[in-house]
Amino acid sequence: PAERAHQNALLPPGTAASSDLNVALHECMAALDLFLSNKFSDALASLQAKTKDSMYHALTYATILEMQAMMTFDPQDIMNAGNTMKEAQATCQKTSSPTSFSKDFIKGGIKVRNSYQTYRYVRVVIKLSVLFECLWFFSNPLSSSPLSAQERGLLQLQEGASSYSFRSVLCTMLLLCYHTFMTFVLGTGKGNVEEAERLLKPYLARYPKGAIFLFFAGRIETLKGNIDAAVNRYEECCEAQQYWKQFHHMCYWELMWCFTYKRQWKMAFFYADLLSKENTWSKESLYSSKKFSETCHLLHLAATELLADDQCVIKLLKGLCLKHLGKISEAEGHFNYIYLNEKKIKYDHYLIPNALLELALLYLDQDRREEAIKLLERAK
Asked: Do residues 224 and 213 lie in contact, with contact meaning Cβ atoms separated by under 8 Å?
């Protein structure tokens, strides 16, 4: 009865209990409950049969795949989610009376998803986790339009999440992905942590063992600089479910960096080594994990004992740590060192665009817009 009351509260006002719409919404809410309770395959299976005929089933199914793609960054997941969202839009268009649900949610979801398109064009840049940041700049650096498609999409998702309804659950999930993860993966790293906490609180209370929300909680703690609390959340997330192994990899990646920030190199190496053995996101990120594993062992060596490539990898790692510690001028010096030693690098040529990207982000934070644009152009 309590569960039915919860689901009824999410239905549009005035919906008859016996209507097809009511049944569809109840089925979709049940699927969402399965998904948020870590029963991922059951959730998708319960929706798939009706995705061609029901707008609500189609959108719920597509949203789950979108969230999976956002959290795993598996290229196949990204492609599958994008195609499924387009199919969901087609299903919505077949509906005789499109609702505000479809207009707000589908537009918002697809517009935010557009940031993914840069993934295939800048795969060379994907070498270390922070280097995912701001990739959309490479396709449209510092757009001068007053309101970008991404911003319009966010506004529509915020509108959808503002009321307590069925669509608010889906819109809130996408916003949590955006504020805690996507903005740092595809944006400038200026997420709204306070908004993410506000969005997360009721869902974490309802699903305290939900892997999705535990990961979001870990990201929020990381962004706030509470590294020990973040580590606890990521470990809880890994323990919460065993079906979605790619999700474990995301936690390993975050744990690797958490221990790097703490300068606990053995633990950082442990998670980097796990990634190098298990990770299948892409050849680039697999190489990153292996390279990081090696670099953790090099951090205590004298600089004169290292090749220029290894020196520059260490400079990049130190620069990133200094950046997150707020020591901007020191970080800038490390990134400039890499750029100035470009001709000495024999193998790890990805270091140059990465260093230029980091410099550009630093310049943006200092309102040095023109210099940032020039660096981003070079980094292409």
From this structure: no
* Tokens coding 247: 């999700």
Conformational region of residue 95, where left means phi above 0, alpha means psi within -120 to 50, and beta covers everything else: beta
Contact 257, 272 (CB under 8 A): no
Cα(180)–Cα(193) distance, rounded to whole angstroms? 7
Q: Is the confidence at residue 226, as pLDDT, over 90?
A: yes
Structure tokens belonging to residue 318: 């130190």
CA distance 338 to 349: 10
Neighbours of 162 (CB within 10 A): 11
- Give the amino acid at 342: E
Question: 192-230 burial by CB neighbour count: b if 16+ within 10 A, else e?
Answer: ebebbbebbeebbeebeebbbbbbbbbbbbbbeeebebb
Q: How many CB atoms lie within 10 A of CB 124?
A: 11
What is the number of other CB atoms lying within 10 angstroms of the CB of residue 69?
24
Residue located via tokens 């990381």: 222
Which of the four pLDDT bands, split at 50, 70 and 90, describes residue 185?
low
User: In the numeric block, which tokens belong to residue 209?
Assistant: 């063992």
Tokens matching residue 337:
């060192």
Put simply, whether the predicted model's pTM sits higher than 0.70 gets the answer no
Spatial separation of the C-alpha atoms in residues 21 and 193, rounded to whole Å = 35
Q: Which domains does the chain carry?
A: 301-380 (1.25.40)
